């Protein structure tokens, strides 16, 4: 399967990707724990079938010291003992926020209450924005058929500013 379109090679596409990257950098610098950020991006990418993002975020998580056990169990997080209650709340809102079309109520009150219990307002701002941005990135990469396998941690760092 060949990529359909290279947004980086298009002037408008490159501008848009740079802005998406800069939003992602702001989220990364928030007080939302880095491990939680990785888990959220991995879980949304699994749900959306985004090979490129899954490749990137598992490699970034590994580079930041995340364990193979936790990375291998993200897809079945409810059936494990390796995630904190706070991480479970973040994974639940990630799933519900990613699968909006599957539930007419969107994010449940129960999930929202768990998120409120574990995260402050700044962290919730980062979490909500992260879920929105990773879903946007997943859709861009799935639509253009940008495949996983070639990502190297830090390869987009020159895009900032």
TrEMBL record:
Residues 25-96 form the Carboxymuconolactone decarboxylase-like domain. Keywords: Oxidoreductase, Peroxidase. GO terms for molecular function: peroxiredoxin activity. InterPro entries: AhpD-like, AhpD_core, CMD-like. PANTHER family: 4-CARBOXYMUCONOLACTONE DECARBOXYLASE FAMILY PROTEIN (AFU_ORTHOLOGUE AFUA_6G11590) (PTHR34846), BLL7811 PROTEIN (PTHR34846:SF7). This is AhpD family alkylhydroperoxidase. It comes from Nonomuraea rubra.
């Amino acid at each position: 399967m060949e990529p359909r379109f290279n947004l980086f090679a298009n002037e408008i596409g490159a501008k848009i990707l740079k802005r998406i990257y800069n939003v992602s950098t702001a989220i990364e610098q928030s007080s939302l724990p880095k491990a939680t950020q990785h888990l959220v991006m991995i879980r949304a990418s699994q749900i959306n079938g985004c090979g490129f993002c899954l490749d990137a975020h598992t490699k970034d998580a590994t580079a930041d010291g995340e364990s193979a056990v936790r990375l291998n169990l993200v897809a079945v997080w409810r059936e494990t003992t390796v995630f904190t209650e706070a991480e479970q709340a973040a994974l639940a809102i990630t799933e519900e926020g990613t699968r909006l079309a599957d539930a007419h109520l969107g994010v449940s009150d129960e999930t929202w209450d768990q998120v409120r219990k574990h995260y402050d307002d700044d962290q919730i701002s980062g979490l909500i924005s992260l879920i929105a941005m990773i879903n946007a990135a997943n859709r861009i990469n799935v639509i253009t058929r940008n495949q996983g396998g070639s990502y190297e941690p830090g390869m987009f760092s020159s895009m900032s500013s």
